[in-house]
Amino acid sequence: MSECTHDCSTCGESCSERQEPQSLLKEHHPEAHIGKVFGIMSGKGGVGKSMVTSQLAVTMRRRGHQVGIRRQRQMCIRDRNCDYLFVDMPPGTGDVSLSVFQSIPLDGIVIVASPQELVSMVVEKAVKMAEMMEVPIVGLVENMSYVTCPDCGKQIHLF
Known about the structure:
This protein is 25% helix and 28% strand. By secondary structure, the chain is of the alpha/beta class. The longest helix is centred in the last third of the chain and has 16 residues, at 117-132. The protein starts with 32 loop residues before the first strand and ends with a strand.
C-alpha cells in the first residue's frame, strides 16, 4: 500500500480512510408531515421573490391545502404539518443559495425575474445552479413586466 494522500478519487486502495460521499440534505423533523417543498429563487434581489412566495402560499391555502413558508432563518409551519412548503430562498447564486440547495430537500424551484437585460444573464446562472443540484425547475415568473393603465387599458412597460 502506498502512502495515503487523502485524495480518494485517485486512489485504488481500500482503506479505513476511504469514505463514501455523504449527502448534505437534512431530513425533515420526524414528526413533521411535509408534502412537496418548492424553493422560490431569483438571480438577484428586488424582483419580487418574497411576493411570489406569499402569493403561491395564499393560492394553495385557498385551494384547501395546509401551507408553510420558510424564510432564511424563520420557519412558519402550523403543527409541523403541511402539504406544501415554500422556501423563500436568499437572492443570488452565491454560497448562501448553494447552502440552501444542499440543506433542504427541494422537489422543485420557481425562478423569479424581471424583464431587465442584466437579469437574463443572472437567471441563466440560477438555472445552471438548479441543474447542477439536480432540482427541477417548475416555473419561471417574469415579474414587473408592465402596468395596465386603469383609464385606457394600455400596457405600460416598466423596463
